[in-house]
Amino acid sequence: MKMNNEIKAGIIVASAIAVVVLFYYKTTDSTAGKLYRIKTSFNYAEGVKQDAIVKLAGIEVGRVEKIQFQYTPETKVEMIIAVSDKARIHEDSVAFIATSGMIGDAYLGITPGSADKPYIKEGGTVASEDPVEARNIWKKAEGIAENLDKMLAEVKSLTKNVNGVIEDNASRINAIAGNLEETAVNFKDFSSDIKQHPWKLLMKGKE
Q1: Residue 85: pLDDT above 60?
Q2: What are the sequence ranges of the domains in the chain?
Q3: pTM recorded for the entire structure
């Protein structure tokens, strides 16, 4: 029995719909099932929008259901998070804001926490770590660079008279050495902070 073109087209469309539905359920399996809701809050939360992805230990487990302000005792951004009941969050877990890739959307990440800690229950609160505004990072870097420029200028002025530099400028040399040591420590702390929290470079500061 030959099928006419209408029947063939119908079969193709039905097959395409079935594939799309199957793909949808496969890709949303991590957040399937019942949901429970917890909350967290930030002093600064640029980039996070309602329905933003929530990841536990890097795996998608839910969505940001609601974003609102709380004004007492201070202004904060409160987020209500809907999380799959397949994902349990420990009481010492920490929520943070990160970005997918260099120019991706912001999402809410949650650290795994400790196995010996109880789980946060419905309506509970997970602690948070505020992202550092990029402008604060650049200010710190610029301040360190300015100090280096000043110290290098002093070193150049001292080395113009090499013969008398030790006797006449010992105190200045000691001061410069101390400043260079302090600057090196600042750069070390700055570098360590970025390595531990790379998402801080991806957050845009307020204008």
Answers
A1: yes
A2: 30-129, 134-202
A3: 0.55
